[in-house]
Each structure stands twice: as structure tokens, then as C-alpha cells.
Design a protein that fits this description.
alpha+beta; BirA Bifunctional Protein, domain 2; Rossmann fold; 2 domains; 8-stranded mixed beta sheet; 5-stranded mixed beta sheet; binds histidyl-adenosine monophosphate
């Protein structure tokens, strides 16, 4: 027997009360609703680089690339992920980078891997792996890429950041140190940011051992004046005592023994020669006896780059970049004895300081401008315009356009904003005649040209023949 079809009962639809959770909703359903609404944020210490910042990043990349090419550094790209022990060995236990900041994890096969916190160790790995000592020495390499440190995020400190670095492997010569410092200095000169190089020498490991014991004796006698961090450093990493920024330690630091007095003749002479080169190329520097760097591999020259602008922001109290000699590292990592030196610049810090400095001085990095602007009227015209723009791609001309605006007035306003000398216009008639209107933006005079002759005509008008 057929069941009688029940007539649907019309219910009155009452407006739902807002903000009161419906009691009958299951956990699963509410999780689903949350999923569709949830927006995401960045992880702590991470950042995006947005299109409006691109011109600064482009300028920094161009400066790096041009300098690398002029000073003959070959580009090397190493992976982001490396064996963890590579950095532990090279950078050293007891450093903040290794003890506190490495992005360390077990890979699926159980091996310990690490997101590179810096790149010198990887460059040394590559130098040894590919037998680069067989090539004419020195081998000069440069790189650009992301580094990862689980640092405490603050101004100018990120957990993922970008470095550009230059390394010279296979030369003892102080000229190699000076050349690198000159490249670092030129980088900021190219961008228009005044900087000063802070420089020091850490001598040989033997000289450093003698100096360290003197430093520890001195600091022990002042222990009661020290901050808690320095009390730790005294035991763990005495050279870092000289890095302390705490107000209460400054007096003790000022009176501390200076490493330069513990250097032997050879180390002193190396430093003097580097300084003589810097004088010759007119790079401004400051001898800073408290400069020790935070990584273990350095010997002899160490240096850092600081903006000359005290209020530059973006972590201006921190160095924009730093480096030095690491004459023993290649051998320690299993290679032949190979003197080496290098540096890396932090590009987020450089970006912030540069942007702020330019803004404070009413300057800017010029935005890229098109040579001409292409305006179109109607769908058919848009098709032809797209084809012509694509054809002009190889001409070397920069074409501005916006397909999503239909009115000529809006498109001319856009063109005006770019300050282009000519606007190209295609409407229904031009589509039929295979022509383009070239409008002189200054005089307003319009000219009709054959689409086939457009490239030649434009180049002639823009003086690009
Ligand atoms: P570093 O001093 O550790 O040296 O780093 C160089 C630069 O990277 C710093 O001066 C800073 O601008 C930037 N930097 C470091 N940590 C951060 C961070 N958490 N956030 C943003 N920027 C940061 C090295 O890495 C050595 N590998 C340099 C070198 C090359 N020495 C010899 N060859």
C-alpha cells in the first residue's frame, strides 16, 4: 500500500538570533564552520616582501650582481637544508646560532637536518666537495638566499631572512680582505646609504687563547658589576663579553684589555696592510677593539658594516652585515689547509635602513616607468592590443597597459601618472584598418600608423634605434 504523501507543513521562518551558538550543532560541524571562516597570519619572526617594496629589493639585487660581476665572483647556490652537524662543526658549539637558534629537526629517515642559519659553512662544504682547490686560486663565490635562525623577533631580526654573501677561498693576501670590504662598502654606495666599516683582528687561535685568559681574569675581578648574561658569558664564551649592550657593563667593557695588544707581529702586520688598502681606496673605517663577531670560525680580520645614520631604525643598532677571515675552517671541515675570508649582508635590515634614510632625505629609488602606454576601447580592440603588446615584448620597449579599464579617460589618466611621452590607442576603427593611433601626450597631436610599422615607429620616436 502506498504511503500517503505528507503535505509539507509551512513553518514560520523566524530570524536567527546573532552571536548565540546553536546548541544542536555537533563539534564536527562547528569545526567545519570555523575552518571556512578562519584567516591565517604569519608565523612569528616571518615576513612577506610585497610588490610596493620590490624596487628596493631589485636595486639591492642589481647592486649585488653588478659588483659580483665586476669583481669576478661566481654565483653559487646551495640548498636551504643541510646536515645539521655541518653548522655545529663550522659555527661552533657555545655560539648563540648553534645553541639557541638552529631550525633543527629529524628528517623522515631519522637523520638530523637543519635549515641553514648562515652560508659560509655550506660554501666550505661545496669547495671541498667539488675539489675547488684544483681551480686557479683564489676561488671567489657569491650567493643570495634565505637563512633561518630561531632568534627572538625584534626590529631588524627575523626567523627567516635574506643574505647576500661573498667568499674568497685560497688567499692569505690582505688584499683579499680589503677587496671584500670594498665590495661591501660599494654595495651601500650604489644604493646611496652612507656606512662605516668597523674592523678588528682576532689574531691566531694561540693569540686568542692568551688574550681570553687575560680577559677572563679582568672580568672576574669585576664580576659583581656585571649583568646576568655577562656572568654566563664569562664561563661559556668570554669573547662575547665585549658584545654586551647592557648599560651596567659599559664601564667594565671600556676598561677591558684590548686584543690588539695580544697580537703577534704577523697578525699586526696583516691588519695594518688591510687598513693601508682601505686608506688607498678611501673606505671609511673605525678600529673597534670590542668587535668579536658571533661565530667561532674567525681568525685575523673581522669586520661589520654600520649605517652612518644613528636614527635609521630597522634595528640600526645592529650591523647591516659582517664577515672576516676564516683561515682554519676549510681544514677543520676536512679539506686542505686553505686560507679564506668573506662576508654576508642582511638584506631585511639593509632594506629598512635604506628606505628610512631615503625617506628622511626626501629621496627614493625611482619606480620603473613604461616607455609608452597602450589604451584600448572595446573587446575586439583588447584582443588586438594584447597581440601587439606580446609582439612588442622582444623589442626592449616597456609597455604600460591596463586591460581592466574600459574608458579612454581612465586609461589616459593612468598614462599621465606614468608620465609617458606617448599613448597608443586602438578602437573599433583601428581594429578594422589594422592601424594604431599614437598620441603625443605633450602636444596632444595624434598620428595614425600601420600596426606592422608600430615597433619601428616607436623606437624612432623614443630615440631607441
Ligand atoms: P652574521 O653576522 O651572523 O654573519 O650575519 C650577517 C648579517 O646577516 C648580519 O649582519 C645581519 O644583517 C643579518 N642577520 C643575521 N641574523 C639575522 C636575523 N635574525 N634577522 C635579520 N637579519 C639577520 C654570517 O652569517 C657569516 N656567515 C658572514 C660571513 C661570511 N663570514 C664570513 N663569510
Amino acid at each position: 500500500m502506498k504511503k500517503p504523501i505528507k503535505k509539507p507543513v509551512k513553518k514560520e521562518i523566524k530570524p536567527k538570533k546573532v552571536n548565540k551558538p546553536v546548541k544542536t550543532e555537533t563539534k564536527k560541524e562547528s569545526a567545519g564552520a570555523e575552518k571556512s571562516k578562519r584567516t591565517f597570519n604569519l608565523l612569528r619572526g616571518m615576513h612577506d616582501i610585497l610588490p610596493k617594496e620590490e624596487r628596493y629589493w631589485k636595486a639591492m639585487f642589481h647592486a649585488s650582481e653588478n659588483l659580483a660581476s665586476y669583481f669576478q665572483f661566481g654565483r653559487i647556490e646551495t640548498p636551504v637544508l643541510e646536515e645539521a652537524s655541518l653548522f655545529v662543526r663550522a659555527v661552533g658549539k657555545g655560539t648563540d646560532v648553534v645553541d639557541k637558534e638552529m631550525y633543527l629537526f629529524e628528517d623522515r629517515d631519522g637523520s638530523k637536518v637543519c635549515m641553514r642559519p648562515e652560508n659560509t659553512a655550506a660554501i666550505v662544504r661545496a669547495y671541498i666537495m667539488y675539489g675547488m682547490w684544483n681551480a686557479p686560486q683564489p676561488v671567489k663565490l657569491w650567493y643570495w638566499g634565505s637563512m633561518f635562525r630561531h632568534d627572538r623577533p625584534q626590529a631588524g631580526r627575523y626567523r627567516q631572512f635574506t643574505q647576500v654573501g661573498y667568499e674568497t677561498l685560497g688567499s692569505h693576501d690582505p688584499a683579499a680582505d680589503a677587496e671584500l670590504i670594498l665590495v661591501a662598502y660599494n654595495f651601500y654606495q650604489e644604493l646611496g646609504l652612507p656606512v662605516t666599516i668597523h674592523i678588528n683582528s682576532l689574531g691566531t687561535p694561540e693569540e686568542r687563547v692568551r688574550y681570553k685568559s687575560e680577559l677572563v681574569n679582568y672580568y672576574r675581578s669585576k664580576r659583581s658589576y656585571l649583568c646576568e648574561d655577562c656572568k654566563q658569558r664569562l664561563v661559556k664564551n668570554p669573547l662575547r663579553l665585549l658584545d654586551c649592550k647592557a648599560e651596567q657593563c659599559q664601564g667594565v667593557k671600556d676598561e677591558a684589555p684590548q686584543i690588539i695588544d695580544w697580537l703577534g707581529t704577523e697578525s699586526k702586520s696583516h691588519l695594518t696592510k688591510v687598513l693601508e688598502y682601505l686608506d688607498a681606496v678611501e673606505v671609511p673605517y673605525q678600529l673597534t677593539h670590542t668587535l668579536v663577531r658571533g661565530l667561532d670560525y674567525y681568525t685575523h680580520t673581522v669586520f661589520e658594516i654600520y649605517p652612518d645614520t644613528p636614527d635609521a631604525g630597522g634595528g640600526a643598532q645592529s650591523a647591516l652585515g659582517g664577515g672576516g677571515r676564516y683561515d682554519l675552517l676549510v681544514e677543520e671541515m676536512g679539506g686542505r689547509p686553505t686560507p679564506a675570508c668573506g662576508f654576508a649582508l642582511g638584506l631585511e635590515r639593509s632594506f629598512h635602513v635604506l628606505k628610512q634614510y631615503l625617506e628622511q632625505n626626501g629621496k627614493d629609488i625611482p619606480k620603473e616607468r613604461p616607455d609608452v602606454f597602450f589604451a584600448q576601447l572595446g573587446e575586439e580592440a583588447r584582443k588586438v592590443t594584447l597581440k601587439l603588446i606580446n609582439d612588442l615584448r622582444k623589442s626592449g620597449l616597456k609597455i604600460g597597459f591596463n586591460f581592466f579599464k574600459n574608458s579612454l579617460k581612465t586609461q589616459l589618466e593612468l598614462a599621465d601618472g606614468f608620465k609617458v611621452p606617448y599613448v597608443l590607442i586602438i578602437g573599433q576603427k583601428e581594429v578594422q584598418d589594422n592601424t594604431v593611433i599614437i598620441r603625443d601626450m605633450e602636444s596632444g597631436i595624434q598620428e595614425i600608423v600601420d600596426q606592422k610599422k608600430l615597433e619601428t615607429m616607436l623606437k624612432k620616436k623614443l630615440g631607441k634605434v
